[in-house]
UniProtKB/TrEMBL annotation:
<comment type="similarity">
    <text>Belongs to the DeoC/FbaB aldolase family. DeoC type 2 subfamily.</text>
</comment>
<dbReference type="InterPro" id="IPR002915">
    <property type="entry name" value="DeoC/FbaB/LacD_aldolase"/>
</dbReference>
<dbReference type="Pfam" id="PF01791">
    <property type="entry name" value="DeoC"/>
</dbReference>
<dbReference type="InterPro" id="IPR013785">
    <property type="entry name" value="Aldolase_TIM"/>
</dbReference>
<keyword id="KW-0704">Schiff base</keyword>
<dbReference type="InterPro" id="IPR011343">
    <property type="entry name" value="DeoC"/>
</dbReference>
<keyword id="KW-0456">Lyase</keyword>
<feature type="compositionally biased region" description="Low complexity">
    <location>
        <begin position="1"/>
        <end position="16"/>
    </location>
</feature>
<protein>
    <recommendedName>
        <fullName>Deoxyribose-phosphate aldolase</fullName>
        <ecNumber>4.1.2.4</ecNumber>
    </recommendedName>
</protein>
<comment type="pathway">
    <text>Carbohydrate degradation; 2-deoxy-D-ribose 1-phosphate degradation; D-glyceraldehyde 3-phosphate and acetaldehyde from 2-deoxy-alpha-D-ribose 1-phosphate: step 2/2.</text>
</comment>
<dbReference type="GO" id="GO:0004139">
    <property type="term" value="F:deoxyribose-phosphate aldolase activity"/>
</dbReference>
<feature type="region of interest" description="Disordered">
    <location>
        <begin position="1"/>
        <end position="20"/>
    </location>
</feature>
Length: 324
């Protein structure tokens, strides 16, 4: 990542926001003082931007950009080292017959498979991400969560995806959630931290905004919608709220932080809608894998098929690409 676009790695809360995290009352006052989200307004804006069309010559750029933003993911109990090696091969060469096809951003696995992914991806430029902190529920002790994180980092993970304690957040124990994110950030060392909000369990857009700001205050390099294990997962309106949060954070602090929608994004058409939202809500500088990711695997299959259509001038069926 470049110095000009990478998310902030330091866990320290920047001035002038330091005082808002000094105690529970201050943090609560700050989070509940954020502007409320107009539910009708954000949903109408998301729907309106979703109807935007892009010129034919821009579609190839959009597809390649989306490919480069994919975190190719396998998070199943039946995952094997062989499956991870196969996923790594696809990450490095998504379309083996097309040398100009970009590689994906990262491969995301469980901590015990990080070492396998690191070996398979060595020298490729594809990053290794690992879920941690008792993913996906996060219902375990902080000691276990930190050990989970350290295990992933010591195995070579470049990025860690943590889950927040949604129960603590929904009960208003904001400082507890803040301190846990800070502790995980410290355990990450030089690895980047993505903070999963599990927005489908937060119930309201106001809660999504508060959780986004809480994660940013605590030092999260990315805020991520969901684990992909809960429905609804990523939605355009929720992603709009999160994109607005990182935009406002940048306006206030000068720091660039990223957003990662995950779960339920399966088609090229869907991906382009999200790219339009990134451009219109956060800004053009977020159109980079350093600041925006897709948590998806099936999405890549459709992107590759549509990419071949753009290049070859006719539709290629699934027999022509590796489909998971």
């Amino acid at each position: 990542m470049t110095a000009t676009t990478s998310p902030a790695a330091a866990p320290e809360t920047p001035s002038p926001l330091t005082d808002v995290t000094r105690d529970e009352a201050s943090l609560r006052r700050f989070l509940h003082g954020l502007p409320g989200v107009d539910q009708v307004g954000v949903e109408q804006r998301a729907a309106g931007l979703a109807t935007r069309s892009i010129k034919k010559e821009a579609k190839r750029w959009a597809i390649d950009t989306a490919v480069s933003m994919v975190d190719l993911t396998t998070l199943e109990g039946a995952d094997t080292r062989g499956k991870v090696r196969g996923l790594a091969a696809k990450a490095m060469r998504p379309d083996p017959e097309r040398q100009d096809c970009p590689r994906v951003a990262a491969v995301c696995v469980y901590p015990d498979l990080v070492e396998t992914a690191v070996e398979a991806l060595a020298g490729s430029g594809v990053r290794v991400a690992s879920v941690a902190t008792g993913f996906p529920a996060g219902r375990t002790s902080r000691e276990v969560k930190l050990a989970d994180t350290r295990m992933a980092v010591e195995a070579g993970a470049d990025e860690v995806d943590m889950v927040i304690d949604r129960g603590a957040f929904l009960e208003g124990r904001y400082l507890e959630v803040f301190n846990e994110i800070r502790a995980v950030k410290e355990a990450c060392g030089s690895a980047h931290l993505k903070v999963i909000l599990e927005t489908g369990e937060l119930a309201t857009y106001d809660n999504v905004r508060r959780a986004s700001w809480l994660a940013l205050l605590a030092g999260g390099d990315f805020i991520k919608t969901s684990t992909g294990k809960v429905s609804p997962a990523a939605t355009l309106p929720v992603t709009h709220v999160m994109l607005q949060a990182v935009h406002d954070w940048h306006e206030r602090t000068g720091e660039l932080r990223g957003v990662k929608p995950a779960g339920g994004i399966r088609t090229t058409k869907d991906a382009i809608k999200y790219l339009v939202a990134v451009h219109e809500v956060a800004g053009e500088q977020w159109l980079t894998p350093d600041l925006f990711r897709f948590g998806a695997s099936s999405l890549l299959n459709d992107l590759l098929l549509q990419r071949r259509t753009q290049v070859d001038g006719h539709y290629s069926g699934p027999d022509y690409v590796t489909v998971d």
